[in-house]
Every structure is written in structure tokens, then in C-alpha cells.
Q: What sequence folds into this?
């Protein structure tokens, strides 16, 4: 397949690009800098995207978006988080909708932040969004709505509702590793909040699966066995051979990150299941948390 990818330099995008190239797919990258061979320049902020970029393209994968937890949430940063997701998605969807020959499939990033803080409730793709005053609920709702022109044009469109991707270099696990290696890692608050995770390998395999699957609409990219923060803490400590005795109080993270960001990253509880992926026959390589952490740390599961 000839596949056009945005956001190909991030954690998921970089791994996906390597995987697709290794499996003989023709990957074209959308970039904001001066393009090299195999790249096309675009600017979602100004709407600059040459429709010729889609010539011969079978599928488009949209992974654009500023890191949610990279910096404290000021008003300016929150606007950047929204714009960096909604603008690229809308530009891709509208451009594809106007093409005489359209790609067959549009896989567009989303996140389980759509569900908000739901305690112990089991959440599937049929579950509705969380509270409207939750920032990440608003972001993901607008993000998915921005793909609507592609849906209206008859392009099979999938919203990739991704959970916590386990990788030792980035994301939640990457941020946790140093204190845990130093023996000062611990559960966050009471540790009862649900963290719905997926290994990076299964994230890439699931996206690849969806390129040719008949599924459309929202698809949860999370492992079938979500874990509480206390279980994640215990498993990570065991994998590293370090104690995990000292809980991290909520106020400490509030001071470090700001209360709203700390709540979103550390204390939101979302027990999400990949119901549609499983029904479609996708087989996870890392169903258990221990195997997922071992894979993230480069160890045999």
C-alpha cells in the first residue's frame, strides 16, 4: 500500500513508519520542514496542503498532536493541544473529501481521554463521552468531529482511541522509570484509578490491522486487561527489582504539574476494553501487564 502519514516523528509515528517500511509499504511523510525524498511539506495552521500529495495513496494515517503532558497547562498550551489535533485532522479530511480519487481509509488518532474519569465502570466503544467540562473530553470530541468530512465523502474512517502506550523512552512509563530505578517510586494517591495501557508493539500491530479491517468509527487501542495504578506500580517495581513502598500524595503532583494536568495524567480512572478489536479477530501479543512492561523494557515477556 501507499500510505500517507502525518505525525511520523513521534513515539507511535516513528515506530509505525519503520514497521510499515519493513513490510514493503510505500510510506510518504507529511512534514512541516523542507521536504526530503519521500516527504511532502504541509502547514495545518495555514491550510497549506497540495492535493497532489494524495496521488496514488491508498490510506492516510493521522498521528499529529502536541504532547498532552509535556508542559504545564496554561491557556496557551491548552489552545496548542487542541489546534495541533483539530487543524491537521480537518485539513486532511476536507482535502480528501474534495479529491476525485480518494484514499480508501483514514486512520485518525484519538485517545481514551474521550471517556473522562469514570471510576470502576467498564468502558467500550459504545460508551458515551465523559463530562463536557473535562478538557480532554472536549479535545477528543472536537478531534474526532474534525474527521467528519472524510466520513461524509465515503472514506472508511477510524478513530484510534489510544490508551497509555508503554515505552521506556516516552509517555507515562518513561516518566516513571527514573524514580522507580532510584527506589522512590510508588503508587499515585490510593492507586485505585484504572490505567488502560497498551504495549507499543501492539499499538503498531493494531494500527496495521485496521488498514485492511472493515471496522470504522471509534476503536479502542488498549490491552484487554487494564490495571489499576497500584498494580502498575507493583509490576514495574518487580520488573526493576526495586521497592515501591512510598505512595506519592496528590498534592505533590498538583504542585509539580498543576492540578488539572495532574488529575488528567495521574488520577483519571478509565477502565477501557478493546471490544471491537477483539471481535474483529485481533490478537494481542501482550495481554498481561507484566508482559507489556517487559516488552517496554526490552526484556523477554
A:
Amino acid at each position: 500500500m501507499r500510505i500517507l502519514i502525518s505525525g511520523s516523528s513521534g513515539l507511535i509515528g516513528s515506530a509505525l513508519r519503520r514497521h510499515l517500511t519493513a513490510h514493503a509499504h510505500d510510506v510518504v511523510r507529511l512534514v512541516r520542514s523542507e521536504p526530503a525524498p519521500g516527504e511532502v511539506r504541509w502547514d495545518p495552521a495555514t491550510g497549506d496542503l497540495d492535493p497532489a500529495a494524495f496521488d496514488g495513496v491508498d490510506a492516510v494515517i493521522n498521528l499529529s498532536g502536541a504532547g498532552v503532558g509535556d508542559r504545564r497547562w496554561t491557556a496557551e498550551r491548552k489552545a496548542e493541544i487542541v489546534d495541533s489535533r483539530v487543524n491537521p485532522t480537518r485539513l486532511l479530511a476536507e482535502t480528501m473529501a474534495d479529491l476525485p480519487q480518494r484514499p480508501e481509509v483514514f486512520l485518525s488518532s484519538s485517545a481514551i481521554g474521550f471517556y473522562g474519569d469514570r471510576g470502576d465502570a467498564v468502558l467500550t466503544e459504545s460508551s458515551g463521552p465523559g463530562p463536557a467540562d473535562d478538557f480532554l473530553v472536549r479535545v477528543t470530541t472536537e478531534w474526532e468531529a474534525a474527521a467528519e468530512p472524510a466520513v461524509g465523502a465515503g472514506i472508511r474512517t477510524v478513530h484510534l482511541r489510544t490508551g497509555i502506550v508503554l515505552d521506556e523512552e516516552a509517555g507515562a512509563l518513561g516518566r516513571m522509570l527514573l524514580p522507580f530505578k532510584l527506589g522512590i517510586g510508588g503508587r499515585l494517591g490510593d492507586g485505585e484509578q484504572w490505567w488502560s495501557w497498551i504495549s507499543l508493539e501492539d499499538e503498531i500491530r493494531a494500527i496495521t490491522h485496521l488498514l485492511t479491517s472493515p471496522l470504522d468509527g471509534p476503536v479502542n487501542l488498549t490491552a484487554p486487561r487494564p490495571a489499576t495504578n497500584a498494580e502498575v506500580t507493583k509490576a514495574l517495581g518487580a520488573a526493576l527489582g526495586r521497592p515501591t513502598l512510598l505512595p506519592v500524595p496528590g498534592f505533590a503532583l498538583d504542585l509539580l504539574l498543576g492540578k488539572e494536568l495532574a488529575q488528567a495524567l495521574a488520577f483519571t480512572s478509565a477502565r477501557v476494553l478493546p471490544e471491537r478489536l477483539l471481535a474483529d479477530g485481533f490478537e494481542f501479543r501482550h495481554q498481561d501487564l507484566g508482559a507489556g512492561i517487559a516488552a517496554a523494557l526490552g526484556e523477554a515477556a
Notes: The radius of gyration is 19 Å. The mean pLDDT is 93. The domain at 2-296 is CATH 3.40.50.720 (Rossmann fold).
